[in-house]
Amino acid sequence: MDVPQAILLDIEGTTSSIAFVADVLFPYARAHLRDFVAAHGEAVAPILAEVPGDDPVATLLEWIDADRKATPLKTLQGMIWAQGYAEGVLEGHVYPDTPVALRRWRGAGIPVHIYSSGSIAAQKQLFGNSIAGDLRPLIAGYFDTTSGPKRESASYTAIAAALGLPPSALLFVSDVQAEVDAAHAAGLGAVLIARDGGGDVQSLDAVLP
Ligand SMILES: CSCCC(=O)C(=O)COP(=O)(O)O
Ligand SMILES: [Mg+2]
């Protein structure tokens, strides 16, 4: 691929560790879900209305355990995590190569966007409160499941259109083969990152070296 006009990055397993999401963020949301819903009835009512079942909180807890990437769950998780970041209990994990790559690509004039199943608000919280400081000035934009699921090629077509770029001008990086395949099917360049080896690259340093 030629030098891309923009880069699109996944979070979990790409900019940040799977363990941070699975072992820190998800349990934090799980532990605070019932109390948060009870304390923010009016604010969360429209979100709960999108969740099926007689006990939406029970459904949401099942979705957390099953790692469902459903938009209402992601919206609510983001609201709960915001509280944790504000209290200083949470700090967003990023690999050491993430800020280095973000700065390098910014210096090269290549805008970097995020595409994660986590809500856009949650993405901004993670990068705004990261262990490497506030990385938001290095990020040009954010996309979440409101652009569509990450394993469907139409989502990548929609993101390229939103950026005003032909799909082939975008380079997507993810640790999930099905997401890389979907991006390829939409005509994007796509790189599989596998932090433990076995992918196209093992770190963001190796993307566009
Ligand atoms: C905003 S960080 C939380 C990420 C998240 O909720 C998730 O499900 C991971 O999704 P990704 O698309 O980044 O693999
Ligand atoms: Mg991922």
TrEMBL record:
Alphabetical list of Pfam families matching this protein: Hydrolase
Cofactor binding mode and count: Binds 1 Mg(2+) ion per subunit.
Alphabetically ordered keywords of this record: Amino-acid biosynthesis, Hydrolase, Magnesium, Metal-binding, Methionine biosynthesis
Alphabetical list of CDD domains matching this protein: HAD_EP
InterPro entries: Enolase-ppase_E1, HAD-like_sf, HAD-SF_hydro_IA, HAD_sf
Gene3D superfamilies, sorted: 1.10.720.60, HAD superfamily/HAD-like
Pathway as given in its UniProt record: Amino-acid biosynthesis; L-methionine biosynthesis via salvage pathway; L-methionine from S-methyl-5-thio-alpha-D-ribose 1-phosphate: step 3/6; Amino-acid biosynthesis; L-methionine biosynthesis via salvage pathway; L-methionine from S-methyl-5-thio-alpha-D-ribose 1-phosphate: step 4/6
GO biological process assignments: L-methionine salvage from methylthioadenosine
EC number: 3.1.3.77
A GO term, aspect molecular function: magnesium ion binding
Catalysed reactions, as listed in the record: 5-methylsulfanyl-2,3-dioxopentyl phosphate + H2O = 1,2-dihydroxy-5-(methylsulfanyl)pent-1-en-3-one + phosphate
Source superkingdom: Bacteria
Cofactor list: Mg(2+)
Known role: Bifunctional enzyme that catalyzes the enolization of 2,3-diketo-5-methylthiopentyl-1-phosphate (DK-MTP-1-P) into the intermediate 2-hydroxy-3-keto-5-methylthiopentenyl-1-phosphate (HK-MTPenyl-1-P), which is then dephosphorylated to form the acireductone 1,2-dihydroxy-3-keto-5-methylthiopentene (DHK-MTPene).
HAMAP family per record: Salvage_MtnC
Subunit architecture: Monomer.
Family according to the record: Belongs to the HAD-like hydrolase superfamily. MasA/MtnC family.
Name listed for the protein in its UniProt record: Enolase-phosphatase E1
Native species: Sphingomonas naasensis
Gene field: mtnC
